[in-house]
Amino acid sequence: MSYNNNTIGWVEWIEEAIEKEYLRYYEFNQFSSIQHIGSGDFAKVYRANWKNFEHLAIKSFIGLNGITAKEIVHEIKIQQKVGYSNNVIRFLGITKFEYGNNFNYALVMVYACGGDLRNYLKKNFNKLTWDNKYNLAYQLALGVSCLHNEGIIHRDLNSGSILVQQGTIKLAGIELSKRIDERNNNQGFSLNEKSDVYSVGVLLWELSSSGQPPFYLEGEEYGLVLALEISQGLREVPIPGTPENYNVWDDEPDNRPTIYQVVSLLKERITDNVDKVSIPDNVERKNIENTNENTNEHIDWIEEAIEKEYLQYHDYKQFRNIEQIGTGGFGKVYRVNLKNSEQPLALKSFKSDKASVKKIVNELKILREVNFHNNIIRFHGITKFELVQLVTNPLFYYYVKL
């Protein structure tokens, strides 16, 4: 292997995550019927079957060097942060394959059978009611609010980077996202949360129009003249029948609403928001033994996963609207919201005795193994809370989609 030190550092991060089972690893030879379905500047996307399961998406980065290895880790960390949203395409795990004399990594993702939003609208626009359009718009805004909730801007929201799975919006193109405090000012302007809100406004127009992007002319590409006119305030005319306040693309960024205000506006208008899920066949479940018998070693496993960002961690103080909804021998279950998110989550608590901490680690590993399946409750991350008692022990929680 002839990688430089910078590449090796990122590769070691990935390999440690696989070895310690922080990330789900898929053997590449277990994939079949691999079909190329899309390409970008840095990656190619394939549809594939895995064992007896149809279908998953494989996203491979072009070449493995210091830049691409860093981007793989960058995308994994972002996916871990926003994985609780039902409107962000879901990261499942990682695989690797031979690439020349070396190897390369690929991310394993949920496959969106509906394709991208642009093609979905072309095929289905005439069937969509205003209620349908509001549901799609609401889901889109929820996905973007999840990114902003985690201090992340997307930077490339368009109907080609948004997927549709069984009628549900899924944001993709996460590899281009940036932390808000890392945004790029090299081009003389700042891409920020309001840039994403503008893009959402364009997408809302596309949803309410004939399903085409603004200023679309078949066979013609956008040019510099049009881009300049848009920057100077040119906008499409609202489609007759479009409800008031649907447009959020004000040319002055400070006048645009926040994404949370957009979510609230759309939430008031929708009449139905039932999640639709696919029903895969022949799920292979796997029993995982945990051989670690020492409580401290189990806690070390959790703490190392948090420190190196293999598991998503949230400060317990970031949860709100905490309401107990169940109790069991393991502990208690609570319904919560995270920061400003409208997405309900569940917190499942465990005490920090030897048996319970071992159970946490074992259950987290099992949930990682079956996370690809839509009909198994999905694990998203972990938090912890100190109980002030005569004997002070930490109370561990992990949170899942409710």
Automatic annotation (TrEMBL):
The keyword Transferase applies. Keywords: ATP-binding, Kinase, Nucleotide-binding, Transferase. It comes from the Eukaryota. InterPro entries: Kinase-like_dom_sf, Prot_kinase_dom, Protein_kinase_ATP_BS, Ser-Thr/Tyr_kinase_cat_dom, Ser/Thr_Kinases-Pseudokinases. Residues 31-270, 319-402 form the Protein kinase domain. One of its GO terms (molecular function) is protein serine/threonine kinase activity. ATP binds at K59, K348. SUPFAM superfamilies: Protein kinase-like (PK-like). PANTHER family: SERINE/THREONINE-PROTEIN KINASE TNNI3K-RELATED. This is Kinase-like domain-containing protein. It comes from Rhizophagus clarus.
